[in-house]
Design brief:
Layout (H helix, E strand, L loop, with lengths): L17 E5 L5 H10 L3 E6 L5 H6 L3 E8 L2 E4 L1 H5 L4 E4 L13 H14 L5 E6 L8 E3 L10 H14 L7 E6 L1 E3 L6 H4 L14 E3 H13 L5 E5 L7 H12 L16 E3 L4 H4 L10
Parallel strand pairs: 1-2, 1-5, 2-3, 5-6, 6-8, 7-12, 8-11, 9-10
Antiparallel strand pairs: 3-4
Helix pairs in contact: 4-5
């Protein structure tokens, strides 16, 4: 895969307004930097007090806010007041807490956005809602999640789509997120007996995520559901073994999948994605 730094200059003009980012982590923090460069006022949240200084030093107006099943804690009212748009980047967190009720959190979020008059929402979702579907899958396909995380994400989407915000909101279902310091091959390295070697990869690099989010922020007509996945879809075995060799780490070993139907190949019908030229494309 070719790589581009997150700081790659974008060609869209500067803009003004106040953007909130609920979750200034691996994706949200560099997004905030992009938006500040473009002239936006940016507010960002973190659940950890020790990260507030990092956000403030970057020019972000920082808030310690936690979204729970019973509502918000922290200075969430001040965070939401007067926002022109909110980017919600809060994952379900099923692995860390299997008992979590993510849809309940999103229900509280929607209510709070309505109460504070926040007019637009960009919700960062996941293609995991499609589960193990086969063949070409786009936004018209019926999601069939096969994991608890995917099921909760789909229920959260349904809450958003049934809310008054639906007409001004965009759900961005990103594929597997990769970047200079994040790649699934590091978890697969050296493993044996892996299945699904002929399944296509469905990945997206962080710089492309940032570009798509920023374009959506600038264009209020970008609403509905959009799949964010890079156009390259090599087989998992070829791709991950090549990535391991490139990094000099033990190569993952896949069992023979001859005769098995390959998994899903995620595409997009949405204008936002179809008119975007991806900077990075997975290659075998």
């Amino acid at each position: 895969m070719s790589d581009s730094p997150d700081s790659a200059r974008h060609t869209l003009p500067d803009a003004h307004g106040t953007i909130g980012i609920l979750g200034c982590g691996w994706l949200g923090f560099p997004l905030a930097g992009r938006l500040l460069e473009s002239g936006y006022s940016v507010r960002g949240t973190t659940t950890r007090a020790e990260k507030l200084d990092k956000l403030e030093n970057a020019g972000i107006r920082a808030f310690q806010v936690v979204l729970t099943e019973t509502g918000f804690t922290g200075d969430w009212r001040e965070f939401l007041q007067g926002l022109d748009l909110l980017v919600c980047n809060i994952p379900p967190g099923i692995r860390a807490n299997p008992q979590t009720d993510y849809p309940a959190k999103i229900r509280h979020l929607v209510r709070a956005l309505e109460d504070h008059g926040v007019p637009r929402l960009i919700y960062i979702g996941s293609t995991s809602v499609y589960g193990r579907s086969q063949g070409v899958v786009d936004e018209a396909a019926e999601p069939e999640p096969d994991s608890e995380s995917g099921r909760q994400l789909l229920r959260a989407e349904e809450i958003l789509r049934a809310s008054p915000l639906a007409g001004s909101s965009l759900i961005l279902r990103f594929g597997g997120l990769i970047g200079p310091d994040r790649h699934p091959v590091t978890m697969l390295s050296g493993r044996t007996g892996l299945s699904g070697g002929n399944d296509p990869v469905n990945l997206i690099e962080r710089t492309d995520c940032l570009n798509l989010i920023e374009r959506a922020i600038r264009d209020p007509s970008q609403v509905g559901i959009a799949n964010g996945v890079a156009p390259g879809h090599p087989d998992k075995a070829d791709y991950y073994q090549g990535e391991a060799l490139e990094r000099g780490i033990p190569v993952p070993q896949y069992v023979d999948s001859t005769g098995q139907k390959p998994g899903k190949r995620i595409k997009s019908r949405h204008f936002l994605v179809n008119t975007y030229e991806f900077l990075t494309t997975p290659e075998a």
